[in-house]
């Protein structure tokens, strides 16, 4: 049965705002659309495709629309059907490439296509054993993520160690050479079993198109017009495959927002979007700036967050009427923060709001437990998006089982010592891993249990058995059936979604930006994460932070540095010179210190050095050699000001090194041994 005709070309254009209409009328490439959050980019590009079909410029079977998720591809196909462009292919990169592989591979190679694996973990476990590496599930998952990054970044196992050093890549507890060996062994195991992974789908398709001109010509005859959504998330491998699909043509429309680049750690590279006009001369570049999602109050806050930063995208212009003010709230501790958010959500429900239109967003999954507890205690249903509920996580289940066993066996006279000892036996340490990944996530879950134990131990007469009973109670309450529930999610998991009311929590320095974000680029990615979180909200937006981790703890935390331009003047934390602030004085002569470098050194620029100049020169020579080995500028290792402080204070321990301005835990782990040897 033939499908009903779609809207006319005039009707398609009449449904758009002026900027969206420009997109729909730019039917010949190259076209770049910089689409800010909530500006209707999917509407613009689907109407563009439908307009091209309706006017006869495009044949629907000759268009390939590429998205990054199957959900987005499904949404695009549905919209295109309604607009009269049903035959258009809307697929992810992997889906489109796999379709081509399955069709051409048997003819080109005369063999069956390798079997696609669902997970790398099994093959990686075999590869790790061959390299005599003891790897638990968390390490295997971290290795899998790192191998995925390497493959989408076109990094071969033989080159991994060199490239990883230059780009600051690491896997917790493993040196780059070990990761490279496991990577190579994984590829050997995979080939030996006739398997391929998701990255191979792209690699094999690209190789086939590059090596067989007949295949390339057939694909290019099939697809003459390309649209790529979320172009800020394109990896080097995806960009190379897209170039092969195009074959030198420029009938390409890309859509994205550099301000929403939050997957650089996984290989995404926003430069493909930013530099698109340089690569494709004659590009039509259009900005979508009218935000239809959020109130002016939310849009103003989001614009202010990025103003003057390298993450700045388009300046959004709110189209909705005014709404409630954005709130900024400090709470004494994380428990109080969760309780305050849950209380506010309860009030929203009493006012007639739907819980399904409320979200609580945070930086890491382990932060969810406090909110699960606070919502459960009020009978408010919730769903954890993108992760298991806290007590469903394997490391938490195992920890609670071990603690229950210790309680039943009569252990636990020293309640906190038993908890610490039990979790230490599972791999918990008092210091967090310095890199992201499953190892870090697992540690955060254990640390949440440690924090709960510390808080519970303040109860008079508390025993280990009582604590385990309390954990069981929490687990039971937090497993109530979910109907219309509050969404709990990380900032990453919230990308592409929206709610009426959004609460962004845990916004203190050290959590956002997170501690292992120790380069300017990594800090900016954290800023963009906050921007993504803020722009999920339609009506209500609340931002909060905790001054201490646990109740009764020292209130030493500061709100995230990203909040400084957003907070009311009286609430801002002093981070630089201010009119009523006491100005630091030179430790040598007592004069006020006026510049950043002077304040970092703690003395005037023209005062005689109080540091050991010979040691300083030794440190500079070491830094030069180390920077050369890593192929990075010298200041990336340590700045001159930091080396002067080392030469002045002559720290003898890692803890003393940490007290030097400019040195964090990751640098102590990376360079501490060398520096302490020189000082000694």
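^ Assign residues to that structure.
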């Amino acid at each position: 049965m033939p499908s009903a005709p779609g809207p006319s070309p005039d009707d398609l254009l009449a449904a758009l705002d002026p900027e969206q209409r420009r997109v729909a009328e730019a039917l010949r490439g190259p076209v770049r659309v910089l689409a800010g959050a909530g500006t209707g980019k999917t509407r613009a590009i689907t109407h563009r495709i439908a307009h091209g079909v309706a006017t006869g410029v495009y044949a629907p079977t000759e268009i390939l629309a590429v998205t990054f998720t199957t959900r987005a591809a499904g949404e695009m196909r549905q919209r295109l059907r309604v607009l009269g462009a049903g035959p258009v292919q809307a697929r992810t990169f992997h889906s489109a490439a796999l379709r081509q592989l399955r069709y051409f591979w048997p003819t080109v190679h005369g063999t069956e296509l390798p079997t696609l694996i669902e997970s790398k973990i099994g093959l990686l476990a075999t590869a790790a054993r061959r390299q005599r590496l003891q790897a638990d599930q968390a390490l295997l998952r971290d290795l899998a993520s790192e191998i995925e990054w390497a493959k989408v970044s076109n990094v071969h196992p033989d080159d991994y160690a060199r490239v990883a050093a230059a780009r600051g890549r690491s896997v917790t507890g493993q040196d780059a050479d070990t990761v490279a060996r496991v990577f190579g062994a994984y590829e050997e195991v995979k080939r030996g079993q006739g398997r391929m992974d998701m990255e191979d789908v792209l690699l094999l398709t690209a190789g086939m198109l590059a090596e067989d001109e007949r295949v390339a010509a057939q694909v290019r005859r099939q697809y003459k017009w390309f649209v790529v959504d979320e172009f800020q998330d394109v990896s080097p491998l995806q960009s190379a495959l897209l170039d092969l699909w195009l074959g030198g043509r420029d009938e390409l429309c890309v859509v994205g927002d550099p301000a929403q680049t939050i997957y650089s750690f996984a290989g995404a590279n926003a430069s493909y979007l930013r530099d698109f006009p340089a690569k494709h001369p004659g590009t039509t570049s259009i900005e979508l700036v009218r935000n239809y999602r959020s109130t002016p109050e939310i849009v103003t806050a989001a614009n202010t967050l990025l103003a003057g930063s390298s993450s700045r995208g388009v300046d959004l212009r709110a189209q909705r009427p005014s709404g409630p003010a954005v709130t900024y709230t400090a709470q004494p501790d994380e428990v109080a923060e969760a309780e305050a958010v849950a209380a506010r959500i309860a009030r929203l429900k009493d006012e007639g709001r739907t819980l399904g239109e409320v979200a609580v967003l945070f930086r890491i999954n382990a932060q969810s437990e406090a909110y699960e507890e606070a919502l459960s205690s009020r009978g408010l249903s919730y769903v954890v998006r993108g992760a298991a509920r806290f007590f469903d996580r394997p490391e938490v289940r195992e920890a609670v089982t071990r603690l229950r066993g210790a309680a039943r066996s009569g252990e636990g006279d020293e309640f906190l010592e038993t908890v610490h000892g039990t979790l230490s036996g599972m791999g918990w340490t008092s210091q967090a891993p310095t890199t992201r990944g499953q190892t870090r996530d697992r540690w955060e879950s254990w640390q949440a249990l440690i924090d709960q134990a510390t808080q519970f131990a303040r109860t008079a007469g508390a025993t280990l058995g009582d604590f385990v009973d309390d954990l069981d109670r929490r687990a039971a309450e937090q497993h109530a059936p979910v109907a219309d529930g509050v969404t709990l999610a990380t900032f990453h998991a919230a990308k592409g979604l929206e709610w009426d009311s959004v609460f962004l929590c845990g916004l203190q320095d050290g959590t956002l930006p997170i501690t292992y974000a120790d380069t300017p680029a990594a800090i900016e990615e954290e800023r963009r994460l906050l921007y993504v979180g803020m722009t999920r909200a339609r009506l209500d937006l609340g931002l909060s932070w905790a001054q201490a981790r646990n109740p009764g703890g020292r209130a030493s935390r500061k709100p995230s540095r990203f909040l400084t331009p957003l907070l009311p003047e009286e609430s801002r934390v002093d981070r630089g010179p201010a009119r009523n602030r006491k100005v630091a004085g030179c430790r040598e002569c007592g004069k006020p210190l006026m510049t950043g470098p002077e304040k970092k050194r703690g003395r005037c620029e023209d005062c005689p050095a109080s540091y050991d100049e010979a040691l300083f020169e030794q440190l500079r020579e070491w830094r030069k050699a180390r920077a050369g080995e890593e192929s990075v500028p010298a200041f990336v290792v340590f700045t001159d000001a930091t080396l002067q402080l080392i030469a002045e204070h002559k720290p003898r321990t890692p803890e003393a090194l940490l007290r030097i301005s400019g040195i964090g835990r990751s640098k102590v782990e990376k360079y501490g041994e060398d520096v302490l040897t020189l000082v000694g």
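The first strand starts at residue 31 and ends at 35.
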